[in-house]
Design goal:
With about 400 residues, this protein is mainly beta. The protein is about 5% helix and about 65% strand. Mean pLDDT is about 90; it is low at about 1-30.
Length: about 400
């Protein structure tokens, strides 16, 4: 850990060199930098490193014959931000290296490069863009594919954006969303090639203000899913139509609730289409106190097959309580209940119910040094007992910034 922090410090010193060479502190030049940020010309750079050590008592999510292991994760990251008038830009690079001490084959190295921009063209028009290249992995046992000797690794690359038109407080406004992502697997091709795909989406939302803090919304979203394996029959299109309300009833309560219908149509006649299925997306935040926040969520949406069935229809309900006991000590408690129903002949009517609850504690020992601990329990019950499991995760973390 000490070597990692020294290495990060050296990198920060080299990066900040040109700024120090200007011979003028940020305050004197009129630039205000939030804690942990280094001014570097037009940029502000935020380095960070986190070290975590924990224990997983069911590494491969098995109903029996469990494998357990302690593991260590090192996560350095750096983010650069810039402003130009009303426009904002950001670029980030992060890495997660995880090592399982009793299962070396499951050691992984994930990394991501992200970029975002917020462009304001006028008081009515704006554009938000997000781009990502991520190298990640599917842990063994986390999908319905046959397990390989190592985790399945993939690259996920894409771009999405939201164009908004309508002044703040206007009676009506619109948002147009568009994006595309490509997922490609880099190993275990015998089992992963069939799940490579391109996903593109186009949608729009119209907001109509009916009260100073309340808007009605009408939304449509079209998604095209194109699998890259020549013999695949999983290509499909999804359409979703929602109507709902977005509100900020008081300073303590905000939320969005959307309800509608969704459909999934496969290009192949051998797959089972889904039409007229209900769909919703709800998120409500209640802040009875400035230091205590409750978040409630619920959603119903489609999921792509990862080895069983044509697709799945998933429903989830969740609640999170975040509380600051002091300026240094914070806790977060969460509970989630979800179920998935699999469609298609190979789904065999499978249904899964998953329950998750957890507790997280963070303590700011110094402004730049944070300690934390997280406990998570997850349990899945399926009408196919081969997919049942119970899992406990315990993780201790220490994070450092400048």
């Amino acid at each position: 850990m000490r070597k990692g922090l020294l290495g990060l410090g050296a990198a920060v010193f080299l990066t900040a060199g040109p700024a120090f060479a200007q011979g003028q502190p940020a305050e004197a030049s009129g630039v205000t930098t939030p804690p942990g940020g280094i001014p570097l010309g037009p940029l502000t750079v935020y380095p960070r490193v986190e070290l975590a050590h924990g224990y997983d008592d069911n590494l491969f999510l098995r109903p029996s014959n469990r494998s357990s292991s302690s593991h260590t994760i090192v996560s350095p990251s750096i983010r650069a931000e810039a402003k130009s008038g009303p426009h904002k830009f950001g670029l980030g690079l992060s890495l997660d290296h995880g090592r399982y001490h009793s299962s070396a084959a499951d050691t992984y190295t994930d990394y991501s490069l992200t970029g975002n921009g917020s462009l304001v063209f006028s008081g009515r028009a704006s554009l938000k863009l997000n781009a990502e290249h991520r190298h990640g992995h599917d842990a063994r046992g986390s999908t319905d594919r046959a397990n390989s000797a190592t985790p399945d690794e993939y690259d996920n690359t894409g771009l999405d954006g939201i164009f908004s038109y309508g002044a703040s407080g206007a009676r009506g406004r619109i948002e147009v969303t568009a994006g595309g992502y490509a997922r490609r697997y880099t190993n275990n091709r015998a089992t992963t090639a069939a799940t490579e795909r391109d996903t593109t989406a186009l949608g729009g939302t119209f907001y109509w203000r009916v009260m100073p803090r309340t808007e009605l919304l009408f939304q449509a979203l079209h998604t095209d899913i194109d699998y890259k394996l020549a013999t695949s029959t999983q290509d499909s299109t999804e359409n979703r139509y929602h109507a709902g309300v977005k509100w900020e009833a008081t300073a303590a309560t905000t939320g969005t609730a959307k309800y509608g219908r969704q459909s999934k149509t496969f290009d192949s006649a051998g797959r089972q289409n889904i039409s007229g299925a209900s769909s919703w997306d709800v998120g409500v935040r209640w802040s009875p106190l400035t230091y205590s926040v409750f978040d409630f969520t619920s959603a119903k949406q489609f999921g792509e097959s990862t080895g069983v069935g044509d697709a799945s229809v998933g429903t989830s309900y969740g609640a999170t309580w975040s509380h600051a006991w002091s300026s240094r000590l914070r806790t977060q408690a969460l509970a989630n209940r979800g179920n998935s129903a699999f469609t298609g002949a190979t789904g065999l009517g499978r249904k899964d119910d998953t329950t998750t609850f957890g507790l997280k504690v963070d303590y700011d020992f110094r402004r730049w040094l944070r300690f934390g601990a997280t406990y998570t329990h997850a349990e899945r019950e399926s009408n196919d007992s081969n997919f049942n499991y119970k899992r406990n995760l315990l993780l201790f973390t220490v994070g450092a910034t400048l």
